[in-house]
Amino acid sequence: MSRCILEAKKDNQEVKIRTVKRIELIKKIIARARKKGKAIGFVPTMGYLHEGHLSLVRIAKRKSNFVVVSIFVNPIQFGPHEDYNCYPRDLKKDMRLLKKENVDLIFNPSVKEMYPNGYKTYVEVSDLSNILCGSLRPGHFRGVITVVLKLLNIVKPDIAIFGRKDFQQAVIIEKMVKDLNLDVKIITIPTVRESDGLAMSSRNVFLNKSERKKATILYQALKWARRAYYKNLISNAEYVIKKMKAMIEKKGGRVDYVAIVDKDELKPVKKLKKGNLIALAVFFGKTRLIDNIVL
Amino acid sequence: MSRCILEAKKDNQEVKIRTVKRIELIKKIIARARKKGKAIGFVPTMGYLHEGHLSLVRIAKRKSNFVVVSIFVNPIQFGPHEDYNCYPRDLKKDMRLLKKENVDLIFNPSVKEMYPNGYKTYVEVSDLSNILCGSLRPGHFRGVITVVLKLLNIVKPDIAIFGRKDFQQAVIIEKMVKDLNLDVKIITIPTVRESDGLAMSSRNVFLNKSERKKATILYQALKWARRAYYKNLISNAEYVIKKMKAMIEKKGGRVDYVAIVDKDELKPVKKLKKGNLIALAVFFGKTRLIDNIVL
Q: Does the pLDDT value for residue B27 go beyond 50?
């Protein structure tokens, strides 16, 4: 276990928002709400909430009348050398933020509640899971899809809201929901950005001052590609990717991938087209950031 | 594609029982029944029904008040050299049998309805799926679990009934239901046998007269093991397995496996104990039969 940069803050201030840890209990509470005719909106998160998460919550509030937010750092989507133990956590702050948004219920189960001893069942979406973010993170999307399916089975929401920063994740979840005949409607929401364009992420907190500044290059590179396509009519994917990589590397980013793919099958394209996804994953120091735009 | 022994019979007699092919439609019909306060009972089958299936249906009738039976030969649970194309089918006869049992609804989707183009999502229950029947049939239980999860999501039954002839299948389904937090209650029912002890199976129809007679050795060998344990206090698993294999091979059966395992984890035991599962799979000619008893 690597040492974590962040230490949990002490915080004894009481926050009054209903927070449930047990699966059986939250099922009962939500069943009661459903019986009263409530439409259930669900926002699954790993906590350490930022404006991106809160924008998902606001959509859920607008489109349903009983909003459940889960806060669960899902161990099975982290590789053995990834940052599961160090993933930032601050439940009290999250509770305060969600209270302010008038969320009805927080689901905050333990790892043991979600994966009791002898847990054995996993879901995979083939083809879509071993590319882009899945290629350097084998098993990552298996972990994501499995926990999302479990959460959807527990909450049984009418709608569930996901952010498009994790574009590949959203595509895979939509595919799983369709393939497994679930009734939930998946809604995806545009990425929320800092004023200098950096995509909001719980992991941004790991960046030091210099890395934080350099990381703005990611969105700049994406915007450059969009301009190159729409203004300068450059459509050679290989060329655009090469240029973007060079821009990012010049700022000290270590590129995991820069890819231009069709946005349904996530397959690489040779010529850029309207609707294509330009996606990237880049390390600054030890912190891996992702971002994307759709042309 | 190998040539099939059985040819579909012509049968123009009309049978009046509601049979639905479309997922969206059956969801609506069942939602309506649920709204009326009905408890939904579900029996998933691959059709070509025999008394074993009908005993499942009768339990469903007794324990719920809206019974759905699915008839779907699930291609993804068959290996490339297995008998998917030749698996026996007789929908008209099945409909007549289910009509007699007062089943409310038959779900009989096409392969394309269940697995449309671009289908990609699969469920696995690790450890339990690559042993016993899974060891000679890689991917078999992945196919079973995936279709069962889909069917449970479509029908959303309160109870679902499975036969214990497919003991491993039942164990895996129960595990999946628990792991994925589904609300359905799984009920398993003892194997129904012919008067000479052969476990009922849709595949028995493939046995020729001589194979059919020899196949009775399977249940005899299982009963011998039970007697050996309870009467003669033999508890050496290796010895019991060797003896059973010899009995079966003497009758011309080609043994896939004979195994003695604990009935929850399906792990081999060295010493027999009350509650152990004795399970076997044996070929007679080209027909693979399975059977088991619990001590």
A: yes
